[in-house]
Write a structure and sequence with these properties.
Blueprint: H1 20-34, E1 43-48, H2 58-71, E2 74-84, H3 91-100, E3 104-110, H4 114-119, H5 126-138, E4 144-150, H6 157-170, E5 174-179, H7 187-190, H8 198-214, E6 218-221, E7 224-226, H9 233-239, E8 252-256, E9 263-268, H10 272-278, E10 285-290, H11 293-304, E11 311-312, H12 313-320, H13 328-336, E12 340-342, E13 346-349, H14 351-355, H15 357-362
Parallel strand pairs: 1-2, 2-3, 3-4, 4-5
Antiparallel strand pairs: 5-7, 6-7, 8-9, 9-10, 11-13, 12-13
Helix pairs in contact: 1-2, 1-10, 2-3, 6-8
């Protein structure tokens, strides 16, 4: 296994022999350590992501899910997502994940073009991506997301359109359609590939949005499109500035003491080996702090303004504990510039605001 040249996730190539059971032991120790911070809460969603969790044997995934349900009250119909790489899956493993309790798959296809996949450093080809989807259906998965990127090295408008047309033809319940960006500390940052120029990127994006709309995929977030009632509940909680608990190497958490009170953020050390050794103790934390007023405002806006529905005054006050008056001048300026529109209580980004989201967010940095 190797790390993709564009990836800045906390992922690491696996050694020839890996002790999956020991890492699961560490995950569960980490969960028990944090139980006090989520006491009295009900778990609505579970997301197993970061790197390639589909390398994990199904029996170890089941260990995690069984322990979570024993330790934390779970809502009826809890959404349980697993991120999957088409190059690491076969039919039997899909069935094992389904039996373990996974009910939603997010498959990292990225492209159905073999040349594009090679340029991205992916280990799978187009045929493997298609096969992964069909095997997931055969295993009984009725809620599947396909991750698809555009703006790939040397990609044309027609190539991007064909990628999206292929994805739509498969009729997944959800499509994540987002632009390749060059992140720091990646191989692409050191040796950037030839990317499409701005005009071509805009044509790819607008054409793709029209294709998705015609096919019945509703855009509810900047890069997320869902068929009827199939929005990703887990990611929607992030975007609505809800609370979440992250366990595992490099995981991040956001937990409010109570509505209107302090918001705590913490993260785990990134090294899987170091995390495994320290799990279940404070030594596993790499950061632990409470958000300042300024941080609360900008983090709330960074998430909520990605959503097509935006936010209400009540939601802002409930999630941050701050009065609406604190951001009213910034909202007024955003309205004046045509980056937001409002019915008096609900604020939504305009098409211009979504296109120039960074310019909109800068207004809240004061």
């Amino acid at each position: 296994m190797r790390k993709c040249p564009y990836c800045d996730f906390n992922s690491h190539p696996l050694p020839p022999v890996y002790d999956y059971a020991a890492y699961v032991d560490a995950l569960l120790a980490d969960l028990r350590f944090e139980l006090g911070s989520i006491q009295g809460r009900t778990l609505e969603t579970i997301f197993i992501g970061g790197g390639t969790p589909s390398l994990f044997p199904a029996n170890q995934v089941k260990r995690v899910l069984d322990a979570v349900s024993d330790l934390v009250p779970c809502a009826k119909g809890v959404e349980v997502t697993l991120e999957a790489n088409p190059g690491t899956l076969e039919g039997g493993r899909y069935a094992g994940y389904r039996e373990a309790g996974i009910n939603r798959l997010s498959i990292g296809v990225q492209s159905f073009n073999d040349r594009a996949l090679q340029r991205l450093g992916r280990i799978h080809g187009a045929d493997m991506a298609l096969r992964a989807f069909f095997l997931a259906r055969e295993a009984g998965f009725e809620n599947i997301n396909l991750d698809l990127m555009f703006g790939l090295p040397m990609q044309t408008v027609d190539e991007a359109g064909l990628d999206l047309e292929t994805a739509i033809t498969l009729a997944p319940e959800h499509i994540s359609y987002y632009q390749l960006t060059i992140e720091p500390n990646t191989r692409f940052a050191v040796a950037p590939p030839p990317l499409p120029e701005e005009g071509r990127l805009w044509n790819i994006q607008t054409r793709g949005q029209k294709m998705l709309a015609r096919a019945g995929y509703h855009r509810y977030e900047v890069s997320a499109y869902a068929s009827s009632r199939r929005r990703c509940r887990h990611n929607l909680n992030y975007w609505e500035f809800g609370d979440y608990l992250g366990i595992g190497a490099g995981a991040h958490s956001k937990v409010s003491d109570t509505p209107g009170q302090r918001v705590r953020r913490c993260s785990r050390i990134a090294s899987p080996a170091a995390f495994t050794a320290a799990a279940g103790t404070r030594d596993a934390l790499s950061s632990d702090y409470h958000l300042s007023e300024t941080d609360l405002i900008i983090e709330f806006m960074m998430n909520l303004l990605r959503l097509s529905t935006g936010f209400t005054e009540d939601l802002f006050q409930n999630r941050t504990g701050l009065p609406y008056a604190r951001v009213k001048p910034m909202l007024s300026e955003a309205l004046r510039r045509g980056l937001l529109h409002s019915d008096g209580t609900q604020y939504r980004p305009t098409a211009l605001g979504h296109r120039y989201l960074n310019d909109l967010l800068v207004l809240f940095l004061d």
